[in-house]
Amino acid sequence: MAHQVSSAHNAHGHHDPSNVTNPEHVEHHLVTPMMYLAVYGILMLGTALTVGAAFLPLGDFNAVTAIAIAVTKAVFVVLFFMHVKYSSRLTKLTVASGFFTFLILVALSLSDYISRAWGQW
């Protein structure tokens, strides 16, 4: 009678980390509490920078600065708190396509807003 080898173990009984037949058996990356604290610190720093930038006389660049800081903070949240950094390429592609769709919607909205003849009607 032939000995059947589990798909997650090789012939010697050792765990095979390259098990792509059953992706739910792939080992998960554990994020340490120190990493969470570091990301939390970065997010708090970003919040402080946003508040500080609000008091600077940057003119039209106040909104640009605030949005840039907010996008940076959002990237940290998505990568670490939502564990996308350690996810499969399919998950990363899904997140990237959602972000790309968001950028298209913002660009279309801004093109409509900018093209209006304010005060000329």
Helix-strand layout with pairing:
Layout: H1 33-54, H2 61-81, H3 89-114
Helix pairs in contact: 1-2
Structural notes for this entry:
The chain is mainly alpha-helical and 121 residues long. Among the domains are: 30-82; 87-114. It contains three helices and no strands. It has helices spanning 33-54, 61-81, 89-114. α1 runs antiparallel to α2. The radius of gyration is 23 Å and the shape is flat. The protein starts with 32 loop residues before the first helix and ends in a 7-residue tail after the last helix. The model has no long low-confidence stretch (mean pLDDT 83).
Amino-to-carboxy terminus distance: 88 Å
Oligomer: single chain
Runs with pLDDT <50, length 5+?
A: none
Which structural class fits the helix and strand makeup?
mainly alpha
> How many strands in all?
0
Rounded to an integer, what's the Rg over CA atoms?
Answer: 23 Å
Mean pLDDT: 83
Provide the β-strand percentage band: under 5%
Question: How much helix, percentage-wise, in residues?
Answer: 55-70%
One letter per element, helices H and strands E, the order comes to: HHH
Task: Please give the largest β-sheet.
Answer: none
Anisotropy-based shape: flat
Q: What's the tally of helices?
A: 3
